[in-house]
Write a structure and sequence with these properties.
The chain contains two helices and twelve strands; from the N terminus they run αββββββαββββββ. It is mainly β and 215 residues long. The protein has a twelve-stranded mixed beta sheet with strand order 7-8-9-10-11-1-2-3-4-5-6-12, covered by helices on one side.
Length: 215
């Protein structure tokens, strides 16, 4: 696992993933640039699934960018700081800080081989990760991560959702660019997309029975 994680640490690429949570699937684009910066475009990543966003990290910090006609970015964390939970779409963690944890021999995790998350995927190696029994807080939630031999993440199952590689892996850019200018606007809260409204039943409800007429 450590050797494969080391390959993943140095792997830079652009790829699309099917991101499923709350029974809804969107396409997330991951961009891991050669200078160490990164960007993830997350449709429905804020305001309960109503707003598309990007989360971008570079040398100036981490930024949340609104992807609409306003196109504005707000800084959510300074360099070396964690993104506050209320602004964190979570989807980027397997590609960023999870790999560093897997490279640590002192990480409080129990790691074991796991069955492939995608049927017929013989090219990936999958690992289950669970909190060590003596640890109160784990750096990674109980999850399964799959890596190709070249270090590309191919699949993830986690409490916050699942990722499945979709399409071809593309060459990386030299740096991850912000999609808009940085403003003083307040970042948007992140949360799972809203659950679909229940469809009305096609079967009409029975009419109430009529009372018998008085004699």
């Amino acid at each position: 696992m450590t050797g494969l994680a080391a390959v993943a640490k140095d792997r830079h690429y652009i790829a699309a993933y099917e991101f499923t949570r709350s029974r809804e699937t969107v396409i997330v684009t991951a961009s891991l640039a050669t200078d160490g910066s990164w960007r993830f475009d997350v449709p429905g990543g804020a305001l309960g699934g109503k707003q598309d966003i990007s989360i971008v990290q570079n040398r100036q910090g981490t930024f949340q960018c609104v992807l609409d006609k306003t196109n504005a970015c707000a800084r959510v964390a300074k360099p070396e700081q964690d993104v506050p939970r209320r602004f964190d779409p979570l989807v980027q963690h397997p590609f960023t800080d999870w790999i560093d944890v897997l490279l640590s021999r002192t990480a409080p995790l129990s790691i074991a081989y796991a069955e492939p998350l995608v049927d017929g995927d013989e090219a990936s190696r999958c690992f289950s990760m669970e909190r060590n029994s003596v640890t109160v807080d784990a750096p990674i939630p109980t999850s399964t991560l799959c890596l190709a031999e070249d270090g590309v993440i191919t699949a993830v199952d986690s409490p916050w959702g699942s990722l499945r590689l979709s399409g071809e892996v593309m060459p990386p850019t030299s740096r991850a660019k912000l999609p808009a200018v940085v403003t003083d606007d307040e970042p948007l809260s992140t949360s799972p997309p809203p659950k679909p409204s229940p469809k009305p039943s096609k079967t009409p409800s029975p009419s109430p029975s009529k009372k018998p007429a008085d004699d």
